[in-house]
Amino acid sequence: MELKILVVDDDKNLCRLMEVYLKKEKYKVIVVNNGQEAINKFHEENPHLIILDIMLPKMNGWEVCQEIRKQSNIPILMLTAKGEKDDKLKGLGIGADDYVTKPFDPDELVARVKAILRRAGNIKRDGENLVFPNLKINNKKHQVILKGQELELAPKEYDLLYFLSKHEKQVFSREHLLDRVWGFDFIGDIRTVDTHIKRLRKKIDEQLDKYKYFHTVWGVGYKFEIIKED
């Protein structure tokens, strides 16, 4: 199957450079130069990955990323300005999977693209099921299978696991998780999120030899991502 990559940048010379390097790896490349066109092409082409610059006409990269994240978990690689740490954190916070700092080595960009697509290929969605290495979640039955055995979770532990795994690789703040999992009218300590993440790590991550799923993004929040340990 030919993998499609949507490249979004208003620097046409840089777009041509990325297109040359990506085509050498046998990817089909679609290039657009503004944010609104990116949204349109995303719907038309159904790409497998998006390379997205921040500074764009019509809609900036933040807006494009947020709009796409309302509809899809497609991998997004952000292009950020040199040394802009806040840009990187913001990108991860709104759902970007990775970032490359301009100016960049095209070979590094290709390596990042391959790594992201490889990680994305580890997850399969089968109807009501979310299937990961050693972990299967059946939302219709509210059932979690870990290493072939049914795992007992408290209701909110399950809700948090399902929400994070359904939005795999997206980073969510504690406030966002409280709003989406506990409800906007929740009255309690924000640290309840930390407590539930700790319990899920103990029940899932600590039972696995090679894979870890629950990760802290310092200064931002938490994410669910398949990371294979050596």
TrEMBL record:
Keyword Signal listed: no
DNA-binding region boundaries: 127-226
One protein family per Pfam: Trans_reg_C
Annotated keywords: DNA-binding, Phosphoprotein, Transcription, Transcription regulation, Two-component regulatory system
GO cellular component, as recorded: cytosol; protein-DNA complex
GO molecular function: phosphorelay response regulator activity; transcription cis-regulatory region binding
Top-level lineage group: Bacteria
Family annotation (SMART domains): REC, Trans_reg_C
BP terms from Gene Ontology: regulation of DNA-templated transcription
CDD domains assigned: REC_OmpR (cd17574), trans_reg_C (cd00383)
PROSITE patterns, alphabetized: OMPR_PHOB, RESPONSE_REGULATORY
Domain OmpR/PhoB-type, residue spans: 127-226
Modification 4-aspartylphosphate, positions: 53
Job of this protein: May play the central regulatory role in sporulation. It may be an element of the effector pathway responsible for the activation of sporulation genes in response to nutritional stress. Spo0A may act in concert with spo0H (a sigma factor) to control the expression of some genes that are critical to the sporulation process.
Protein name: Stage 0 sporulation protein A homolog
Protein's organism: Orenia marismortui
